[in-house]
Amino acid sequence: MRGLGTTSARRVLGRAGAGGTRAGFTLLETMMALVIIGVGVLAFVEAQKSFIQANSWSSQAATGQLLANEIRERMRRLPRHDPVLGLFLQAGANSSSSTLVGWGRETQGQTVEDLNDVDDFDGLTFGVAGQYPGPINAFGELIPETNPDGTPVEDAEGNPVSMRGWTQTVRVDKVEPYNFSTVRDRAYVQAATSSVPGRGVDQFPLRVTVIVSFQGPLDVQPQEVTRLVWIQP
Q1: How far apart are CA 204 and CA 191, in angstroms?
Q2: CB 204 within 8 A of CB 174
Q3: 3-24, pLDDT tens digit by residue?
Q4: How many CB atoms sit inside 10 A of residue 207's CB?
Q5: What whole-number distance in Å separates Cα of residue 33 and Cα of residue 22?
Q6: pLDDT band at 1, cuts 50/70/90?
Q7: Terminal Cα distance for the chain, rounded
Q8: pLDDT digits over 56-87, tens only?
Q9: Contact (Cβ atoms closer than 8 angstroms) between residue 210 and residue 72
């Protein structure tokens, strides 16, 4: 009986020991669990990064659209050409040559308020390395940089700082009245035919393109954010 009891006890201990071993984690199982957790964390981090990038681009796109529309509002009610000087061809000494007069800024020292017709804006950039500080709003005023709480950012002298990194570039093209994709030379004149009437040098619609770009602190060069195109009849 004593020997039988000893044998039974050994069997019980053996089962308990075997059961205890199966209830734990082996080194391989632990490593696999860590790999699975690591993959999950990495996927979460990548998803968070993509969300931040998408949110940042969405914010930039909205800002770019706003800045483009500010230029459009600034130019919307302006005449195509200077209301006093107009746009005309001035005959040269040689009867076969002529010079276009009236396209672009009348004087290089103008302020934004002096840009009083559409062709004045051709080739101008408002912002860093541009002809004028910028970006500007529909009233020709600088748009200030703002803090997260909405207050304007000021320099050491207490003056508002314009939006950093943003530029507005304007291009004005003279186009065919029946095909806005056809660009004509600024001095182009359309002779009258049996099918179309004649058009003077100042009687063509203008296509205005506003390109808004942004250059962040780590960007090598500005990146185009928004392009707005409309026809000034």
Answers
A1: 13
A2: yes
A3: 555 555 555 445 555 554 556 6
A4: 19
A5: 17
A6: very low
A7: 116
A8: 667 888 999 999 999 999 999 999 999 888 99
A9: yes
